[in-house]
Amino acid sequence: MRILIAAAGSRGDVAPYTGLGAELRGAGHDVALATTDTFAPLVRDAGLEFRALPADPRAHGGATGKRELMRAAAAFITDLGQGFADAVTDGTELLLLSTTTAPLGWHLTEATGTPSLGVYLQPTAPTGDFPPVVTGSRSLGRHANRMAGRFALRMADRVYEQAVAKLRHRLGLPPASPAETRRRQEQANWPVLHGFSTALVPRPSDWRPGLRVVGTWWPHHDAAEPLPADLEDFLNAGPRPVLIGFGSMAAGDGERLSEIAVRALRRAGLRGILQAGSAGLAADGDDVLTIGEVPHAPLFPRLAAVVHHAGAGTTAAALRAGVPAVTVPVTADQPFWARRLAALGAATDPIPFRSLTAERLADALGRVVQQQTYARAAAGGARHMATEDGAGQVLKAVQQLTDG
Question: How far apart are CA 215 and CA 199, in angstroms?
Answer without folding.
Answer: 9
